[in-house]
Every structure is written in C-alpha cells, then in structure tokens.
Specification:
seven-stranded antiparallel beta sheet, 3 domains, Immunoglobulin-like
Length: about 850
C-alpha cells in the first residue's frame, strides 16, 4: 500500500480531528508543520506514549537553556539545563612537576624502546580531574483529570522547535506546548483544555543540587548552589560531589517561573509549590540564570542578583501575549532551520512506514531501509545543533546542552579527541555558520589556559590542549595519576591543532577576511608555535614528536605487550602538517609574517612521509607495530582523509587507497566481534570517510547502522552498544541508555558529505550517492569558497545543480559520477559550456550570481 503526500496529510489530519480540537491552542491538527497543515514526515518526531525515562524525552533548547519534555499525562516533567551551570571554579590545573618527567619519557621511547615504562612515566605529568556539567532542576506539573487518557500523541516539530502533547480525558481534550525561545531567552509552556475550568493541579520545582523552592501567587523560584567539586564517576576519590559555603566555590543558580492562569486561580503552597485551580489555559514562562562570569573569574555573583536575572527574563516575556512569544520563536528558529531541506526517496509517493510513529518507523527500518528516515535523521541533527549552540552560548558538549545526572558520563564535558569536533562537522556545510561561533570562542579561551600548560608541561611557546576540557577551560592532562587513566587519553596534547581546523574552515566557507585577521590567525599561529617547539630531531635529519599517542588506541610492542606511547604517530603528523599549511595560507592572504611562513614551509619538508605497511594499509604507528584494538571507534590515522583534506582519491590516490585498506580492516575486525557495522559517533565518522572515498553504498551502510542500532525512539543517539554501562571498568551512577550527541551531529555531517563536497579547490555534486537513493533533492548546502548549492536528481542518469555565489572566485566543479555537463544557465540566461575535463569544469562567478547546471550520462 502506498500513500501520496496529499493522502498522507489527509489521513493524519483525520486522526487529529478525532482529538476534538479546533483552532490554535485547541488542536486543529496533531501537530504544527512548516505549512500550517499536518505532520511532515521529514521534520516531525511523534510517539503514542509519554516518556518513562529522560533519554526518551524531547530535547528543546535555545543554546543557553535546555529542556527535556517527558510528555506525561498526570505528571509532566521538564528537565531543565543552563549551559554555564558547572561545578567548580577557576584554578591552576597544571602539574608543576610535569616538565621534569619529559626527558625520561623521551629516553624510554627513543632510546630504550620501553614503551610500557614510558606510559607509566606519562602518568606523572597528569593534572587534576576536570569539573562537571550539572543539571539545574525539574519543573513538574501534576494535573487532576479524573479519567484515563485516550488518543494520546506527543510530537516534536523540528521546523517550529515546539514539543506538543495532546490527549483526551473523558469529554475534555487537552493540549500542551513547550518551546525555548532564543529571542526572549525563556522556556515557555502552555496548557489548554477544550472545557472551561478543566485545568487543576500542582506545579513544583525540584533539584538534585542543594536548592530550595518557594512560591507566591504568581511566581515560583528555585534557587541553589552548585558543588565546589564534582569529579567524574571513574575518579577513585570520595566524596565525588563536594559542596562549600564559600562564595565563588561553586556558583549560585536560579530558575523563576511566572504562572498565568486564564479563568482560574493560583495559590502558593507551604512546600514551595503552586496550585492552579479551575483554569481554561495556563502559561508558564521560565527564566534561568547562574553566577558564572567568565572562565577565568570566580563565579561569585550573589544569589539575589542571580535570582533577579532569572526573574527579569521571565517577567518581561510573561508580559507578552503567548501568540507573540510563539510566533517570534518560530520565526527565529525557522530562519536557521529552513536554510536547508532534504528529501530522499520517492517523495510524491510515500511508503506506509513514513506515517508510523517514530519508534515504529525506526523498527520498520530494520526490515525496509527507507531513505526517507535518513532525511529525518539529517534534519534532526540540524535541529539539535540549532537548539544547543547559538551565538553567545557555550559550545555543544557531549550531550549538547541536556543532562540529568549529577555525575554524568565523562562529566558531560568537552572531549576534544573527536567528540566536540564532530559536534560541529555539520555547522558550515549545513548552512549554520554562525552556530560555529561558540566553538570558536571556546578555542580562543583555550589558547589562554593552554599557553600555561604548554609552558609548564612541555617548556614550549604557544598553547596546547589535551583530551578533556571543562567550563574553566582546563587544558592540562587530567587523571590525577589514576591507575586506569592511560596515556592514550591523557598524554595526547594535539587537541588544539584539531580545534584550529574549525577556525580555518569557518574562514574557508565564509571568506571573512576580518575574522581571519582578528580571530582565527592569531589563535592558529599560537597553536603552530607550540608544534614548532614540540617537534624534536628524530636522529635521521627529520622531525618527530615524543611522547606521541594515537587517541584511545594501543599497539603491540616488540615485547608482545600492549603499549600506547610512541613517537610521531600518523595523527600527530597529520595535524601538524595541517596547522602549518593553514597558517602558511592565512599569512599569504593577510600578507603578514613572511619569515614565519618560510620557517613553517621548511619544517614541513622535514616531517616524515605517511607510511604504508606491506599489506598496503596506512600505518598508525611505526613500521612493524600493530594496533592492539583494531576495532576501535577512533579512526585517527584516517584524519587526513576526513575531516582533513590531505588525502584525496584523485589528488593522492595511493594514500587514499591505503586509508581505505585500513578502514576496511577496522570494519572487518568490528564485524567479527559485533556482527553489525559500527554505529554511534564511530559509525558517523566511518560514513564520512567512505563518502570522501566516493563510495556511497558503504557510506549508506553506516548511516543505516545509526538507525538500526543506535537510534532511540526519539532518534537521539543511544551509544549504549558503543560504550557499555561499566565505562571502561568504572562505576555508572545510574543504569540505562547512554546518550552522546556527536552520533547525531556526525551523521548529519556524513549525509551532507554524500551530497556535496568542496575541498582541494573542487566542488563535487553528489559525490557519494548510494544506489538506494534513486531520487531526491537538497537545497541550501554550503561549500568552501562561499557557495550555496541546490541539487535534484530523479534517476542515476540525470540531475541538476544550482549554485549561488556569495564571493567572487573561479571555481572548479565536478558533476555526479558517470555524468557530464549538458547545459548551463547563468543568471537565467543560457550560456556556452566550459571545457569539460573528465567530468570537471571551471567557471568564474561573482557575488550574487546564480548558475544552474544540467547533467546527464
């Protein structure tokens, strides 16, 4: 059975009509959609039961504040977060004894080849544990219905960023809407009923932190203090959470809710809750604030000022009509979300799976891999990035902005050996360039704290960062010499160079020369200066790094034992080559630092070439060394292929082939253990790697794995399979699924990479389309060089691409695989075909010009 789009809309509207609502706020349909009609299967997540656990709730956010909406009937829960609410305060995390151990490490590696001893010596260079991102609290709404609920739906409209709950209780139809507004900086919840006076219940604040709740007739206040210390769950010391009464030793926080009850009354209760009686509609407007000031300043803003800040936003927004708050929020969100759209599959003839609730749709995908669900996954990733990273907010952390645990997995921090970088892979390609700014701001801060780490730990100029970062921009190696904190995590000091790739990409996509001069280049130069000081002579006329690790992997040493500390790993050399190249290019563009530029070029020539083993695989360490964990999720040695651009099947075919052989080996080893492809963030990385290799079918295999193995009922990435509950032998504070947002955001980036690529001076259309994607269209993707791209394809033999130029330049374009350029229209006028060299052609465009290409086999 097949459904046309019009038939699908009529069917869903009929289901919605059974709920008995009419008019806005009183349910004319199941959920709002982009056109004001019924559900859009590409932009709607919907389920037929409330969430029983936090992981199944719907995420909402405005970058600074987040809410997980459970959608309960008798008891609704909004789990609240504020992105600056962290334990701790600024402190010196460097280890003053670290530098004296560096010569010993280098001797053990380079002379004695005692790699196990070198790893133990590296522990002596570690600093303290990082701090923890904390949950603010919960707002509960406990309603008195009198009858059981029927016709239940809960919907997350990605296009409007609104979570909706609808159900009936007897003759009364209830509706609840929740959104988090960026323009008004508040969380808003609206409850309505079809019968006047049908809303009665209790609203209450709670928190796991040390806090108290109070209320008067119109407002509710939650106020408290964050811990002085909250060490990760795998730290051996107790107590894990430590509070202090000293101002600044743990920040104050507050949430203020203004409650307006139409047609009813509100009354404060002795326990700090508020009772609503006999209302027809209730609007709750919530402001949140903390005592955080800056990463290097004590968070000592007094509690009364924190409460006043939270109240100010809530009161100001509550004075506006609900419709205006909602309309302003939707318009703001859609300016970002609607820049890009994607349809996969035969959109004029929807399959019946597309009309299923999302949990059933995911289950059906295991039997029928409908590409349309991948479009929803792609759009959900864009939705999440908009929701957790806005201008002025903190960068998206391991869980974006959402966290419910006092001691969350990995402290819910910024893990910089892949995870935070992957969070931002879709920012530029998916036309969300300004959302990259929070990460750029984080890197700027780290260049300050990282400068002291470079000096104290390594005696070098510039700045460096290790694998864990917290709110206070800790850049030193963490671990406090714990037995299980291996050097493969803590001794990796190249995170700054990887982060700087994002600074360069932001320029490459925007061509903002002032940003390059004022922001990116000074930070990149400091990162390169660290590399210049960190490189040492390898005894053969070349340069190497020591100690050097390949993130979260170990090798089999010549003595047959596992080890993780070596010198000059492939990952190190790739990142150093890249930061040197970007600094050289930036200095040319800005016409500065000619002597410095020449020095970097000379040093690059002394870096060792990439090595390939006898089986044709790219080496991760030195010759003869084999990975101890070949199934690791970290594809670190393939970095030059993706997200880097040093390897290319056309420009460097030998190195690309060697990377592919290593990628194939990793997949085979993983399949031998799990019987299924890698999912979560490792699978997203592998999907992007296959896309760079131009292999759409293999890329699609890993996108499918995300949906088959790691997609929760609400499409959040459940990485339980990737990271078991014991967390590498350490304790878990709570059981259940394990959420990491990078799997969602990385999947979106990988899908974008299958649709368009723009590196090494070439813009490629549909470079990695799998056989299953027989038709589709995408609009609004961005490329390096300041181009925006729309592509449509209806078969394997015909497609069109439209590009809009935002900067002047000459661009090389490549048509879809197996197709050549058949027609060109510049600014609507037919033009002559440029020379076509193996499917590639060059065209000069000026800002504002639009060009439409037609391809055929």
């Amino acid at each position: 059975m097949r459904f046309t789009r019009r038939g699908f809309v009529r069917l869903v509207a009929a289901v919605a009509a059974n709920l008995g609502f009419s008019g806005h706020g009183t349910f004319a349909q199941t959920a709002p959609a982009a056109n004001g009609g019924a559900l859009d299967p590409d932009s709607t997540i919907w389920l037929e039961e409330p969430s029983k656990v936090w992981m199944d709730a719907y995420p909402l956010g405005n970058g600074r504040m987040g809410a997980m909406v459970f959608g309960g009937v008798d008891s609704e829960r909004l789990a609240l977060n504020e992105d600056t609410l962290w334990s701790g305060y600024p402190r010196d995390c460097t280890n003053p004894d670290a530098l004296k151990h560096l010569p010993t490490v280098r001797k053990l590696v380079l002379q004695d080849q005692d790699y196990q001893a070198a790893g133990l010596e590296c522990k002596k260079m570690q600093g303290p544990w990082n701090e923890t991102y904390e949950p603010l609290g919960d707002l509960f709404v406990e309603l008195e219905h009198g009858e059981a609920a029927t016709a239940y739906r809960r919907i997350l409209d990605l296009d409007a960023a609104v979570a909706t709950v609808a159900y009936r209780a007897g003759e009364v139809a209830y509706r609840r809407e929740v959104f988090v507004s960026f323009p008004d900086d508040v969380i808003v919840m609206r409850l309505t009923a079809s019968k006047p006076g049908a809303l009665t219940g209790i609203l209450r604040f709670t928190s796991q932190l040390r806090a108290s709740a109070s209320a008067d007739g119109k407002e509710m206040v939650l106020a408290g203090k964050a811990p002085e210390r909250a060490q990760p769950g795998y730290a051996p010391t107790e107590p894990t959470v430590l509070y202090s009464t000293m101002a600044g030793a743990g920040m104050y926080f507050a949430s203020v809710a203004v409650v307006e009850a139409s047609g009813g009354t509100t009354a404060a209760q002795p326990d700090g809750s508020m009772r609503v009686s006999g209302a027809s509609a209730v609007t709750v407007t919530i402001g949140c604030a903390t005592g955080f000031r800056k990463f290097d300043l004590a968070p000592d803003i007094p509690l009364d000022q924190v409460i006043a800040k939270a109240r100010s936003a809530a009161v100001k927004a509550a004075a506006k009509p609900y419709e205006r708050l909602l309309d302003t929020h939707r318009a703001d969100f859609r300016k970002l979300y609607r820049r890009v759209s994607l349809e996969l599959g035969a959109r004029g003839n929807l399959g019946q799976d597309a009309m299923l609730p999302t949990d059933q749709r995911v289950e059906a995908f295991t039997r029928n891999a409908d590409p349309a669900l991948a479009a929803l996954l792609f759009n959900f990733g864009r939705y999440l990035l908009i929701s957790c990273s806005r201008e002025g907010s903190q960068a998206a952390n391991l869980q974006g902005i959402w966290n419910t645990e006092l001691i969350p997995p990995w402290s819910c921090n910024w893990t910089t050996n892949i995870n935070v970088q992957m969070n931002y892979w879709p920012a530029e390609t998916c036309n969300l360039s300004e959302l990259h700014r929070p990460l750029i701001a984080l890197v700027q801060d780290l260049s300050v704290t990282g400068a002291k780490v470079a000096e104290v730990n390594y005696g070098t100029p510039g700045w460096c960062v290790h694998h864990n970062v917290d709110m206070w921009r800790q850049a030193a190696p963490v671990g406090d010499a714990a037995p299980w904190m291996l050097a493969t995590w803590t001794a990796w000091n190249m995170a700054g160079q990887w982060l700087c790739a994002h600074l360069w990409d932001h320029y490459a996509f925007t061509l903002d020369k002032q940003y390059l001069r004022d922001v990116a280049y000074p930070v990149m130069k400091g990162s390169a200066e660290f590399c210049v000081g960190w490189l040492i002579d390898d005894g053969k006329g070349g340069l190497t790094t020591c100690p050097s690790v390949s993130p979260e992997n170990e090798f089999i040493a010549p003595n047959g034992k596992t080890a993780d500390v070596y010198h000059g790993t492939t990952m190190d050399m790739a990142l150093i080559r890249e930061i040197f190249a970007h600094c050289v290019e930036a200095s040319k563009i800005l016409d500065v630092d000619a002597e410095w530029r020449a020095k970097l070029v000379a040093l690059t020539e002394r870096l060792p070439p990439y090595a390939i083993d006898p089986e044709g695989r790219l080496l991760e360490w030195g010759p003869g060394l084999v990975g101890a964990n070949l199934g690791t999720g970290h594809s670190s040695p393939m970095y030059p292929l993706y997200p880097g651009t040093q390897f290319s099947p056309r420009r460097t075919p030998g190195l690309a082939a060697a990377a592919q052989k290593l990628l194939e080996q990793r997949r085979q080893v993983h399949l031998e253990h799990s019987k299924s492809p890698e999912a979560g963030w490792p699978g997203a990385w592998q999907a992007a790697l296959w896309a760079r290799l131009g292999d759409g079918n293999n890329a699609w295999e890993f996108v499918q794995a995300q949906l088959v193995h790691d997609a929760n009922c609400n499409l959040l990435n459940d990485c339980h399979d990737t990271h078991p509950p014991e967390l590498n032998g350490a304790r878990r504070p709570t059981p259940g699924a394990l959420f990491q947002i990078d799997g969602n955001l990385g999947s979106t980036a990988a899908i974008a990479e299958m649709l368009v690529q723009s590196h090494n001076g070439e813009i490629a259309f549909l470079p990695a389309i799998p056989d299953a994607w027989t038709r589709g269209k995408v609009s609004g993707l961005r490329t390096r060089g300041g181009m925006e791209v729309d592509i449509e394809w209806a078969s394997e033999t015909a497609s069109t691409a439209t590009v809009r130029a935002f900067a002047e330049g000459s661009h090389q374009f490549r048509g879809p695989k197996g197709q050549v350029l058949r027609g060109i229209a510049l600014n609507g006028a037919t033009g002559s075909l440029p020379p076509n060299d193996g499917g590639a052609f060059t065209l000069a465009l000026k800002p504002g010009e639009t060009c439409r290409f037609t391809f055929a086999s």
